[in-house]
Design brief:
Layout: E1 16-17, E2 20-21, H1 36-40, E3 43-44, H2 48-55, E4 72-74, H3 85-88, H4 90-101, E5 105-109, H5 119-123, E6 128-133, H6 149-159, E7 164-172, H7 177-189, E8 194-199, E9 210-212, E10 215-217, H8 220-236, E11 240-243, H9 272-277, H10 303-309, H11 314-322, H12 325-328
Parallel strand pairs: 1-4, 4-5, 5-6, 6-7, 7-8, 8-11
Antiparallel strand pairs: 2-3, 9-10
Helix pairs in contact: 2-4, 7-8
């Protein structure tokens, strides 16, 4: 089933759909890089039947809080167009469903396959936003299982005349600042709408990093210095700057960092980002006021608490989150609640 976990506290489109489990990219910075079976044993993910059930509003308890056509994030945990797709074609079947139903979605990939036939003819007629993860050419050495930076850029340029394309500069590594600045010109030439920036997270302490909520990250002051320059350049070129770095969300042109503004879609604004930065639009939908809609919060609760949460409403638990400084730590600079 399309899944929704802890991201519901932060994200406007937190429900993800994955046609595969696992990923063969073997990106050196990946948070699952120590689990080799994830790289080499790709399994089938959610089925077409499950997708159709969701679209038809026959939804499991995990997403009962949402009864409207919220955009799905396709490829939230596993690239739908990774090399194994050429053999199994599960994403092709899902793409046909998205095409025929015109259900809104954001798809994330690091592969050129999405711009090849028969995928290209379908994607250009879908109700979607396409995202390519691509920081700069130097990342090719760290992403050897994916299409190259150059191949992704070529695929993006093929799609931009038909669909909005955003570039995910994630994870951004500060030492590549100059290369990313140069890459922005290439993104502009390819017709890209905007760029999404989020800093890298390490499992182990690295020189110059600090510890926040179990991750080793660079101080927000460093990112802010770089992001200000990225934002200025993007705006000069008529492009959008989106910030997926939680500590600096307020810098973003839009709080929904997936870049879906103006698409006519309805996202979920009843989350902590809007509570902190956009209180006027922090509102609950009728479905979020019903009992038994708080299931997503069980992923961030202790087991004893989780049992009780299942009976509560989304609204009740989200309001508890707004009062918990521990919950919003990490949404302000370097985790200091101000």
């Amino acid at each position: 089933m399309p899944r929704c976990g802890s991201q519901v506290t932060l994200c406007d489109i937190p429900i993800r759909f994955d046609t595969y489990v696992g990923c063969s990219h073997e990106c050196q910075y990946c948070f699952v890089q120590r689990k080799s079976e994830v790289f080499h044993n790709i399994k089938d993910g959610e089925s077409i039947e499950v997708l159709m059930n969701f679209i038809n509003n026959n939804r499991p308890v995990e997403v009962k809080w949402c009864d409207w056509n919220i955009p799905l994030h396709w490829g939230g945990m596993s690239d739908p167009f990774q090399p194994i797709e050429r053999e199994r074609k599960r994403s092709l079947e899902a793409l046909k469903v998205f095409h025929d139903t015109q259900y809104p979605f954001v798809v994330s990939t690091k592969n050129k396959l999405i711009a090849e036939e028969p995928y290209f003819s379908l994607i250009k007629e879908c109700n979607c936003v396409v995202q390519f993860s691509a920081c700069c050419p130097e990342y090719n050495e760290m992403e050897q299982g994916a299409s190259t930076f150059e191949e992704r850029l070529e695929a993006a340029a093929k799609i931009t005349p038909y669909k909005r394309v955003n570039i995910r500069c994630q994870p951004y590594i500060p030492k590549y600042f100059d290369s990313v600045m140069k890459a922005i010109d290439l993104f502009h030439e390819a017709g890209v709408h905007g760029c999404i920036f989020e800093g890298i997270k390490y499992q182990k302490k690295q020189p110059g990093t600090i510890k926040i909520q179990g991750d080793s990250v660079y101080p927000s002051a460093l990112y802010k210095k770089h992001f200000i320059q990225f934002k200025a350049k993007l705006h000069k070129l008529g492009m959008k700057f989106y910030c997926g770095e939680n500590r600096l969300r307020g810098m973003s042109d839009e709080l929904c960092c997936c870049g879906i503004e103006g698409m006519g879609w309805k996202e979920n604004k009843a989350n902590l980002n809007h509570y902190l930065y956009d209180r006027e639009n922090f509102k609950f939908e009728p479905s979020q006021k019903k009992a038994h809609t708080a299931a997503p919060f069980t992923t961030i609760a202790q087991s004893a608490q989780a049992r009780g949460l299942c009976e509560e409403s989304y609204e009740d638990i989200m309001m508890l989150c707004t009062k918990d400084k521990g919950m919003i730590r990490g949404l302000v600079e370097d985790g200091v609640v101000k």
